[in-house]
Amino acid sequence: MQSVLTAAQMREAEQAAEAQHGMPSALLMENAGRALAEAARSVAGPGGRFSVVCGPGNNGGDGLVAARFLREGGARVDVALVGDRAKMTAEAKRNLRALEADGFTAQGLEALPTLGRGDVVVDALFGTGLSRAPAGEFADAIHRIDGWRAAGAKVVAADVPSGLQSDTGEAFTPCVEADVTVSFGLLKRGQVLEPGASRCGELRRVDIGLSPATLHALTGLVPRLVEEADARGVLPPRRADSHKGTYGHVLVVAGSRGKTGAAAMAARSALRSGAGLVSVATRAEVVDTVLSFAPELMGIPLEASGPLGLADLEPLLAAAEGKDALVIGPGIPRGPETGKLIAELLARVEAPVVLDADALNAVATDLSALRGAKRQVVLTPHPGEMARLTGRSTKEVQAHRLELAREFAMEHGVTLVLKGTRTLTVSADGDLYINPTGNPGMATGGTGDVLSGICGAFLAQGFQVPDAIWAAVYVHGLAGDLAAGKRGKVGLIATDLIKGLCDVWTRWDR
Ligand SMILES: NC(=O)C1=CN([C@@H]2O[C@H](COP(=O)(O)OP(=O)(O)OC[C@H]3O[C@@H](n4cnc5c(N)ncnc54)[C@H](O)[C@@H]3O)[C@@H](O)[C@H]2O)[C@H](O)CC1
Ligand SMILES: [K+]
């Protein structure tokens, strides 16, 4: 699990490293520059040349150190200094002098050679110190870097692609598009939040000497990036002596006339995610249609008619008996009493509950139901549903994803999944987990139903929140990535993700 920091926290780490652990920032820069040189070498072609474009701050300093290491390794290196030399930081100046003492002179941008395939540009213009949109000669430098990349050169960014806001992931115009980003110390939020994340290319985190104690002091407060090993670790290998009861029974309360597929996809996804048994409670008029999608499913016909309401309470409480997790929402017929029905179920059902889709819109009418729940509650809103839950606009939700999601999860004591690029899972204690898997091919009807089924299946198997949920989110995105790898993104449909789940299990030998 990678911790993800803000620029201020990085500076705090650097100062703490110096104050508490005698690790001078000069040594941090030396380590950063060395790692940067190694990354640049790793993507260069045979005999490739290197152009290092340095800004006036410590990010530029990293670039100057990298240039020195590259030269010492016998490579052909050019360095361009952009910005006012008088404004260079002390560390950067020191490293410029070290290069010049060795008979090397930095040049202006226009003097740099044209680069192409096999060559490498090191982007050391700006890092976490960027405070506004690059302009003037800095913008020119970024355009020049883009031109070299278009001509086939690889771009390696020092710490953050220049032009990217390291705290938010916002990309100014212009912003470097990197093939590799070498992140010093820990990950920065802007490297894992869109649109910044896709500007980074391959993200490599390197240790530069910030002490574990310093990092630990920081990492309690910051989002973590979920990695494949973390998600795989949540699912233990199956024991030979296990039986279907071992893997729990999921009750899916979903579906209505015209929306039987939503119920079927949530239910089939739960089956494909390892649940021992899956039952679907749905209106009697559609129960056979829902069951027709998978013979493995069992059905509980809800005899009342119209929207879900208090008339369904007793039948659903009976249906929930002996179940290990509930999933409520995909395709349900929502009406004026649905919120009250869900509140009653949350207060009385002895199993964790996943609320998705219209169950979220129903519970938005009275959020006190969440605190009244007997067991854990998991909400899986997309930004529009989150807007209804919080009374904010979708635009506001997207602009403050981390903060709003954390505030809601802690206020209502729930595990919250805020879907979108880099889906966010937040625990009731406010711990943030950022998901790196998934792709735009998943923007298609039904993928949310699939995720709710995976969540229900993991909870039914006894995996605890929040791990069960950030792992479900990871698996959901990985299934989508594997499916997109086979079928492309444009043609991807939600049932491809259900097939993709099996590719995850074979990949993980589970
Ligand atoms: N934190 C660590 O452990 C280490 C960090 N290192 C590197 O240092 C940079 C951060 O360096 P900093 O000097 O704070 O700022 P930058 O180099 O990112 O920016 C340069 C400087 O430019 C000014 N500035 C900001 N925005 C603009 C703009 N749009 N136009 C012109 N000038 C601008 C501002 O004054 C900035 O200070 C970090 O990313 C790492 O690469 C250490 O070297 C290793 C340890
Ligand atoms: K940079």
From TrEMBL:
K(+) binds at N59, D123, S162. Gene3D superfamilies: 3.40.1190.20, YjeF N-terminal domain. Residues 227-508 form the YjeF C-terminal domain. CDD domains: YXKO-related. Keywords: ATP-binding, Isomerase, Lyase, Metal-binding, Multifunctional enzyme, NAD, NADP, Nucleotide-binding, Potassium. Pfam families: Carb_kinase, YjeF_N. Binds 1 potassium ion per subunit. The keyword Cell membrane does not apply. PROSITE patterns: YJEF_C_3, YJEF_N. Residues 10-216 form the YjeF N-terminal domain. The keyword Transferase does not apply. (6S)-NADPHX binds at residues 58-62, 127-133, 159, 262, 331, 382, 449. Its cofactor is Mg(2+); K(+). AMP binds at K419, G420, T421, R422, T423, G448. InterPro entries: CARKD, Nnr, Ribokinase-like, YjeF_N_dom, YjeF_N_dom_sf. Belongs to the NnrE/AIBP family. In the N-terminal section; belongs to the NnrE/AIBP family. Homotetramer. Catalyzes the epimerization of the S- and R-forms of NAD(P)HX, a damaged form of NAD(P)H that is a result of enzymatic or heat-dependent hydration. This is a prerequisite for the S-specific NAD(P)H-hydrate dehydratase to allow the repair of both epimers of NAD(P)HX. This is Bifunctional NAD(P)H-hydrate repair enzyme. It comes from Hyalangium rubrum.
